[in-house]
Amino acid sequence: MQKSHSQRLTRELKRLVDHPPEGIICYTSDRLDLLTVNVIGPHGSPYENSLFELELEIPEKYPFVPPRLKFKTPVYHPNIDTQGRICMDLLKMPPNGGWRPTISLENIIVAVQSLLGNPNPDDPLMVDIAEEYRYNKKEFERKARELARENTKKNSSS
User: 84's torsion region: left (phi>0), alpha (psi -120 to 50) or beta?
Assistant: First the structure.
């Protein structure tokens, strides 16, 4: 690992752990390249007050390559599939994606939290959920809220 890469990563991880953004908690493991991230669903969304666990893996070529981020907690969402993979422009390399080395880990996590409250049905991983979001938003919100509550209950009782 290059020294500058290591310094930036150490600085970013320290900031995330010591001063996390609102509704986000990060835990480091014994591996510097793997983080557990807990995100509280955004206000006004079907995920409000629900807790989601994500895994953030930092590639050796970070920040020149985006981190890999996936949900460990199941989410009913057009841009998150059943394996927890996230379809978001910032997580993809150019020319098709919007990743830039100036984007920090904190920026990515906050963007994913924002994506929960603002799905993008025009770039879905789950086409059927995107269609439901477009044409029957009440039903989408009911299913999203129900699954989020089930998972939060499961996690709080274990």
Answer: left
The DSSP symbol for 124 reads: -
Pairing of strands 51-57, 68-71: antiparallel
Neighbours of 17 (CB within 10 A): 13
Residue 26 designated active-site: no
Tell me which residue has tokens 């879905």: 124
Count CB atoms within 10 A of the CB of residue 90.
17
How far apart CA 100 and CA 127 sit, in angstroms, is 27
Instruction: Using DSSP bridges, classify how beta strands 34-40 and 24-28 pair: parallel, antiparallel or unpaired.
Output: antiparallel
* CA–CA dist 24, 69 (Å, integer): 14
Strands of 24-28's sheet, edge to edge? 24-28, 34-40, 51-57, 68-71
Catalytic residue among 24, 25, 87, 125: 87
Beta strands in the chain (DSSP E): 24-28, 34-40, 51-57, 68-71
Q: Is the pTM of this model over 0.85?
A: yes
pLDDT in tens, 60-104: 999 999 999 999 999 999 999 999 999 999 999 999 899 999 999
